[in-house]
Design goal:
It contains 20 helices and 18 strands. By secondary structure, the protein is of the alpha/beta class. It has a 5-stranded parallel β-sheet, covered by helices on one side. Strands 14-15-16-17-18 form a 5-stranded mixed β-sheet, with helices on both faces. α1 packs antiparallel against α2 and α17 (395-412) packs antiparallel against α18.
Length: 547
């Protein structure tokens, strides 16, 4: 480690001993982030928070899944605003330094910062954690503002802050991390949750001593009925991230840069960790990307902090066909969701939409605000669903999943009869969303049938413009897999051979002939009257004259 880094760390430690723990803390946590091998600059958050200080929009609540950089952003804001340290060198060369407001707020605010989870790590802390927070912050305030005199024993934090503001005219920047852990850890303790919300409301609503209030968590602010208990806060969530979209999680450009600098294959990283669509922007899971780049390989790093048991508990509820929705999404489909009914806790579930909304906030689903649809974002999360399915008593679906590799091998072997039999089995065993009512249900079945293709192919392309029309489904092989591309045409009450004839006649394979050497044409038909599937598979070669 270089000498100047060691010196900065030692200076930070000396500052920490001299500063408060909760009031005007030092900047050692942000120093550690800056000194890390991989650091992506998210200081663009600072110009935004500066713009709302002492305005009607000064109360912010940012909710993101675990591993999306919430705590690091909180550490950065502490380092920037706190009077308890000198952080100018830490921000040298970062984006925030270029903003006109930067110097005006650098280390010029009183900061109060606490992490709620540290106060409720055990069940014994639920009944007195609010008192503990108030006692520890007030203790620091007494040391920081001795000129304000002693405060009566048993004084509430709000009263002490009112008194300090009245005597000194100095306001405070509040930074609260893991604000929602009470709702995640004390799930059944409704009285504790209500007392906590009353505490926050009393602390912030109408308070003149607040320069800025910044809270982070996984869940948006708890609602009672249709209304938020803290409606003074501007919320930025996985459902509506507004101006803060690119400031949490990595953008495609940032991931490209990391891959270029380390020799990682961007397409592999994209497949594993992309998929969170926010304001039309693709956002990557930052912690997983960093782990993959540091270790030089893509795999699921999700289980380091979240396990499939947590996911299993929610999908096993199976409200309003939730199980079938998961089956459809595993096959690549999307599911419409109404996110407005969720009460933003982890126990109030009246409909399937309430569970799907929670899974969005936990990071197990991505949300397309434009279409109001949810979907499984990437390979990493898909693996978590598969783990949940395997231990969740879904024996019929597990059996289907175990046979999918065999079905894909039958496709490569041009064995249409075996493929038709496999698709029929999936239709009969995977249940509700695959009960055919129209051609769209056939598409769902086929996507499910070729789920194992994810190991060899890019995400399926639906209705790819090719030749003289649109191919229903196209699978393009990943680099170095030596697998043929698949052009799939589906028919309803017609014939599989007719599907192949349409592929050839309309030249659906012509668009991808430059992409790969081998192409298989797959025609699949479902006859509603006989309830039978048929499949014809043929190889296409470049020298064929009719394409």
């Amino acid at each position: 480690m270089s000498g100047h880094i060691i010196m900065e760390i030692e200076e930070g430690r000396r500052e920490r001993r001299a500063m408060g723990i909760y009031v005007n803390p030092g900047n050692i946590s942000f120093q550690e982030a800056i000194n890390s091998k991989i650091y992506v600059d998210k200081s663009g958050l600072i110009p935004y928070t500066n713009s709302v200080i002492r305005t009607r929009q000064k109360n912010l609540c940012v909710s993101r899944p675990r591993r999306f950089g919430k705590s690091m952003a909180a550490d950065m804001l502490v380092a920037y605003y706190s009077r308890g340290c000198d952080s100018g060198r830490l921000f040298s060369g970062l984006k925030a330094e270029e903003d006109a407001s930067f110097m005006g707020h650098l280390n010029r605010h009183n900061v109060i910062r606490w992490d709620v989870q540290r106060f409720v790590e055990s069940k014994s802390g639920y009944d007195r954690f609010i008192d503990d927070i108030e006692d520890r912050v007030i203790r620091d305030l007494k040391r920081e503002f001795p000129e304000c005199g002693g405060f009566p024993e048993g004084s509430r934090l709000k009263t002490v802050l009112d008194e300090i503001y009245g005597q000194t005219g100095q306001g405070f920047v509040f930074i609260i991390d893991e604000w929602d852990c009470v709702f995640r850890l004390a799930k059944e303790r409704k009285e504790v949750q209500r007392e906590y919300m009353d505490f926050l409301r009393g602390l912030f609503k109408g308070a003149e001593y607040v320069d800025l209030a910044y809270m982070t968590g996984i869940l948006p602010i708890k609602k009672y009925g249709e209304h938020s208990a803290l409606n003074i806060f501007e919320e930025y969530s996985m459902i509506d991230s507004s101006e803060l979209t690119t400031l949490f999680g990595f953008t495609e450009e940032e991931v490209h840069g990391l891959c270029t600098g380390t020799g990682m294959d961007f397409r592999d990283v994209e497949r594993w960790y992309d998929g969170y669509l926010m304001n039309g922007i693709h956002i990557y899971n930052p912690k997983s990307v960093v782990d993959a780049v540091r270790r030089g390989k893509c795999r699921s790093y999700w289980t380091g902090t979240e396990t499939y048991e947590a996911l299993k508990a929610y999908i096993d509820l199976n409200l309003d066909g939730l199980r079938e929705a998961v089956v459809g999404m595993l096959s690549g489909m999307r599911c419409w969701v109404d996110t407005t009914t969720s009460q933003n806790d982890m126990t109030t579930f009246k409909t399937r939409d309430d569970v799907l909304t929670l899974l969005i906030h936990l990071g197990y689903l991505a949300y397309d605000e434009g279409t109001e649809e949810v979907f499984i974002p990437n390979q990493e999360i898909a693996q978590e669903y598969l783990r949940a399915v395997k231990v969740g008593g879904w024996d019929d679906l597990t059996e289907v999943l175990n046979r999918l590799e065999e079905l894909l091998c039958s496709t490569w072997a041009l064995d249409g009869e075996a493929v038709a039999a496999g698709i029929s089995a999936i239709h009969s065993e995977a249940a509700s969303p695959l009960e055919y009512n129209d051609a769209n249900s056939l598409i769902c079945t086929v996507l499910m049938a070729y789920y194992s293709a994810k190991a060899y192919y890019l995400n399926p392309i639906m209705e790819l413009p090719s030749g003289k029309g649109y191919a229903d489904i196209v699978y393009l092989p990943m680099r170095n897999t030596a697998r043929p591309a698949l052009v799939v045409e589906l028919k309803w009450n017609k014939s599989a051979r007719g599907a192949i004839a349409q592929i050839r006649d309309r030249q659906y394979a012509s668009w991808i002939q430059g992409y790969t050497g081998d192409i298989l044409l797959v025609g699949i038909n479902y006859d509603k009257k006989s309830k039978e599937h048929t499949c014809t598979i043929e190889a296409w070669r470049k020298e064929e004259d009719n394409l």
